[in-house]
User: Which sequence fits this backbone?
């Protein structure tokens, strides 16, 4: 969205016209020195200024104050009539106290400037007596222009004494979107300003005033009303007669009207040229009265989330319309109908159309080509389909085109090369396909080119870049493009941001990048680079703040002076990088070198106090975790898993608000980390495959945000603390492969959290990765411990459980009868326990089940069947139940009687006795036939005999060498011991 820039531009234009038109212009005085008393007043004002970083008052010295910067004197009288001390700022929405503005107090000495007509202290960090608005300004009766915009340090009530300034024509106080602490509960004083043409009190709380339209209606001279962000409650008051016949600009944006747009009073203001209703929760359709506003040039109704906001048919007279902003609503009509409803007489005068962030559907009509004066076309974040019509090439004045986040398809028309004034082109996140037209290379004014997340293919050559001399930002990522340029090519541009992820740039490093020394953001991840980092790389990109080279086959080392570079985010994962890890850059926030071959130890002196994410998993990093890690107070995500780390964990982590702590697959040896007791932000904890020991503390139940706990394959002992059931967000619990005893805690039904992260889960006999939105509890693995007692019944209430593994324990009793309530269960392993009784028939209700293991228990009765149970382990389904001598029925060989017990009688003996005999006879016959065919082949084919015995000789030699080497190694170790 660019409505903010549009509003700023219009405000500047309006203010300029006011300055050059109706606003009084104080002439300069050239008759000699200024009046001494007024010079003294200015110097007193200067004494109240404690900081002047921009040097606005640097010239305030000497006798002739009329020559001082910002001071204007009358040619006739020599009196100071103008004081302009506005701090220049490219962004009027920036907090003045964060810039180069004046800092200090507005002095009473200004009262000595009795002839002052124009006072502009805007965009400074000034405050009044005791922090309040300076009431004494109400005594400066000659003031015609007062601009205190952006003085956010003023607090308290806006003084009604401003109503004494009867000559006032321009009044601007407060600032929309600021942290203003000013308010007014009565604005009747405004009605005394009978000459007032411009009133702007944005950001001042007027929530207690309900009759504000009536108050403003009593000032017929008003041309500009700006009440943005004033917490106004309603605009649907009825005005019997509208006096504001000169009103040209009305800004009521960012209030809380929350009513029908059609009932507002301002539809009678037919003189309006500018109407801003942004962010007011206005609902319903426009009234027919909109068609009477024939002077309207700018209409902004963005960010109302009004899906019924459609243009009426009575718009044929709005021929002056230049800017139309409907962005950030929920409009779901056809885009062709919407555009066809625009006034035909304005088709050639419209300059900006913003329909972004809606739900428009349909295809972009070729009619768009008739809007020949368009400067900006914003259609992003809709549901538009089809191809871009060639008529788009008629918009030769277009400077910005944004079609991103739709469902456009087909190729980009070559006519896009006719948009010679285009500076920004965004076609990202669509379904565009085919080649990128080389005509784009003719857009010499283009500064930003974003084509990411499409289906573009083909080759990008030098022709595509030939005329892009002003290009600053390029994003071709997530396509199937190949960047192919000569090795000695010199680009015509100086990039600041270059994103090429998933484009093919390799195998060698693109040499042309060495000339792009102004880049601050570079992404060449997944670009098929198979090369060593060139010598010029780190010096060329020493000022880069964002670098992503992950998922390539890049080799080499990190520079020793990495800490002197400007990196804030550095992604180097999944490459072939080696060597030691240098000290981190001082401003780094994300450091990812995972899945490489870095060695050595972690840097002993970690000074990166801004670091939030540190990912180093799957390397060869050894040694211990240094104490200096505790300096990383901002650290939220730490993954050091799959390395060679040993020793304990520094306990000084106590003050770190860590969310992800992943240390699995190392040789760390310690008790459960006590510093986690304060880890109220902890969500993921993975200590698996280490040498941790001792008990799991009861205070683990206080870590209420925990969602993932994996402590498997350590030597934890004791019992499972019942407090763990208080972790209502917990979705993954893996305590397998420890020495934990006792019973499974009750109240597992409390574990009902929701989570959407990527989880690694051992289920179905293998390791899987689950992604997407996972509702409720996902996995419980308590296998390989010494748990006893029964399986708690309320475990069956976890109806979104996917994996349940309780194998290799000492559990007894019956399987819960409601096991079939686990409707989402895909993997169930209860093997190698002491479970008894029958398998519940409800097991057949598990329609998602794909892995089942009940082996080696003391189960009895008939094996349930039906649904998924009949398809499991098709090769040998009996293995699921092996080791349970009391079970019978398919898929087991034991038959059951009518009551489910094993049958030993002779029912159907003729058939059943014959079946084993037939089976064994067929088995012997097949074996003899197979052996005879092989024997005959060897007998009559000499080459097969030779190959066969050579294979045996080679296999014998390999086994012999292997045994001898292993035996020698074993005896050597024995001798050394």
Assistant:
């Amino acid at each position: 969205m660019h409505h903010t820039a549009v509003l700023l531009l219009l405000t500047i234009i309006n203010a300029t016209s006011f300055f050059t038109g109706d606003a009084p212009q104080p002439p300069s005085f050239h008759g000699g020195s200024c009046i001494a008393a007024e010079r003294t007043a200015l110097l007193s004002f200067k004494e109240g200024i404690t900081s002047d970083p921009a040097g606005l008052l640097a010239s305030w010295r000497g006798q002739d104050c009329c020559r001082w910067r910002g001071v204007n004197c009358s040619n006739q009288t020599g009196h100071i009539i103008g004081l302009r001390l506005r701090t220049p700022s490219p962004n009027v929405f920036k907090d003045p106290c964060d810039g180069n503005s004046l800092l200090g107090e507005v002095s009473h000495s200004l009262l000595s400037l009795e002839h002052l007509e124009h006072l502009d202290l805007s965009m400074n960090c000034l405050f009044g007596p005791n922090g309040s608005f300076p009431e004494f300004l109400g005594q400066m009766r000659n003031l015609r222009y007062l601009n205190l915009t952006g003085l956010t340090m003023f607090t308290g009530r806006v003084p009604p004494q401003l109503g004494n300034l009867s000559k006032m024509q321009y009044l601007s106080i407060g600032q929309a979107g600021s942290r203003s602490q000013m308010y007014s509960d009565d604005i009747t004083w405004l009605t005394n300003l009978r000459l007032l043409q411009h009133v702007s009190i944005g950001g001042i709380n007027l929530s207690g005033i309900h009759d504000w339209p009536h108050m403003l209606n009593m000032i017929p001279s008003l041309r500009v009303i700006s009440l943005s962000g004033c917490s106004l409650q309603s605009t649907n008051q009825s005005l019997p007669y509208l006096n504001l016949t000169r009103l040209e600009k009305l800004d009521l944006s960012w209030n809380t009207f929350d009513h029908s747009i059609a009932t507002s009073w301002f539809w009678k203001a037919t003189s309006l040229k500018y109407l801003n209703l942004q962010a007011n929760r206005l609902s319903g359709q426009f009234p027919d009265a909109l068609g009477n506003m024939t002077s309207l040039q700018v209409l902004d109704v963005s960010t109302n989330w009004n899906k019924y906001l459609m243009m009426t048919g009575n718009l044929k007279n709005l021929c002056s319309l230049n800017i139309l902003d409907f962005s950030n609503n929920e409009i779901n009509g056809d885009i062709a109908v919407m555009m066809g409803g625009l006034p035909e007489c304005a088709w050639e005068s419209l300059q900006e159309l913003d329909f972004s962030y809606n739900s428009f559907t349909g295809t972009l009509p070729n009619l768009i080509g008739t809007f020949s004066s368009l400067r900006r076309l914003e259609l992003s974040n809709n549901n538009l389909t089809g191809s871009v019509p060639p008529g788009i090439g008629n918009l030769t004045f277009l400077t910005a085109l944004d079609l991103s986040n739709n469902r456009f398809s087909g190729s980009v028309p070559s006519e896009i090369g006719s948009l010679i004034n285009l500076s920004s082109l965004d076609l990202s996140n669509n379904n565009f396909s085919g080649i990128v037209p080389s005509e784009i290379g003719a857009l010499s004014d283009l500064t930003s080119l974003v084509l990411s997340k499409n289906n573009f293919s083909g080759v990008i050559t030098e022709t595509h870049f030939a005329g892009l001399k002003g290009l600053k930002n390029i994003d071709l990522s997530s396509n199937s493009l190949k960047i192919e340029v000569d090795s000695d090519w010199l680009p015509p541009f100086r990039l600041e941001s270059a994103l090429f992820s998933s484009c093919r740039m390799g195998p060698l490093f693109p040499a042309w990048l060495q000339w792009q020394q102004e880049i601050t953001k570079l992404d060449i991840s997944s670009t098929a680079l198979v090369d060593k980092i060139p010598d010029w790389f780190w010096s060329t990109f020493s000022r880069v703040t964002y670098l992503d080279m992950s998922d390539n086959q890049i080799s080499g080392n990190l520079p020793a002076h990495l800490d002197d570079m400007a990196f804030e985010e550095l992604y180097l994962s999944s490459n072939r990088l080696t060597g030691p890890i240098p000290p981190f850059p001082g401003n780094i926030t994300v450091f990812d070198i995972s899945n490489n071959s870095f060695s050595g130890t972690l840097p002993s002196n970690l000074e990166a106090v801004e670091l939030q994410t540190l990912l180093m998993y799957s390397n060869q990093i050894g040694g211990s975790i240094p104490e200096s890690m505790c300096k990383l107070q901002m650290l939220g995500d730490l993954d050091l898993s799959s390395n060679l780390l040993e020793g304990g964990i520094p306990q000084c982590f106590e003050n770190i608000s860590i969310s992800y702590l992943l240390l699995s697959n190392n040789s760390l040896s310690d008790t459960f980390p006590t510093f986690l007791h304060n880890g109220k932000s902890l969500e993921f904890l993975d200590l698996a495959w280490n040498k941790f020991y001792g008990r799991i503390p009861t205070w683990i139940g206080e870590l209420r945000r925990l969602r993932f706990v994996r402590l498997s394959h350590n030597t934890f002992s004791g019992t499972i603390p019942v407090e763990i059931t208080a972790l209502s967000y917990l979705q993954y619990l893996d305590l397998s492969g420890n020495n934990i005893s006792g019973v499974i805690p009750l109240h597992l039904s409390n574990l009902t959290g929701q989570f959407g992260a990527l989880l690694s889960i051992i289920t179905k006999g293998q390791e899987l990765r689950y992604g997407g939105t996972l509702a409720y509890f996902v996995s419980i693995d308590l296998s390989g411990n010494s748990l006893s007692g029964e399986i708690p019944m309320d475990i069956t209430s976890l109806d979104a459980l996917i994996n349940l593994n309780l194998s290799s324990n000492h559990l007894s009793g019956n399987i819960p009868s409601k096991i079939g309530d686990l409707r989402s269960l895909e993997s169930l392993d209860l093997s190698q326990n002491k479970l008894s009784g029958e398998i519940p028939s409800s097991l057949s209700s598990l329609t998602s089940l794909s892995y089942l293991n009940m082996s080696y228990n003391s189960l009895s009765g008939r094996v349930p069947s039906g649904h998924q149970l009949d398809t499991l382990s098709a090769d040998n389904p009996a293995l699921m139940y092996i080791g349970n001598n009391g079970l019978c029925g398919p898929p087991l060989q034991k038959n059951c009687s009518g009551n489910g017990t094993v049958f030993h009688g002779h029912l159907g003996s003729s058939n059943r006795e014959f079946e084993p005999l037939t089976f064994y006879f067929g088995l012997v016959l097949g074996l003899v036939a197979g052996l005879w065919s092989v024997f005959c082949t060897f007998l009559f084919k000499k080459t097969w005999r030779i190959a066969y015995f050579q294979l045996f000789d080679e296999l014998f030699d390999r086994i012999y060498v292997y045994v001898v080497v292993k035996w020698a190694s074993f005896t050597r170790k024995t001798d050394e011991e």
About this structure: The chain is about 10% helix and 20% strand.
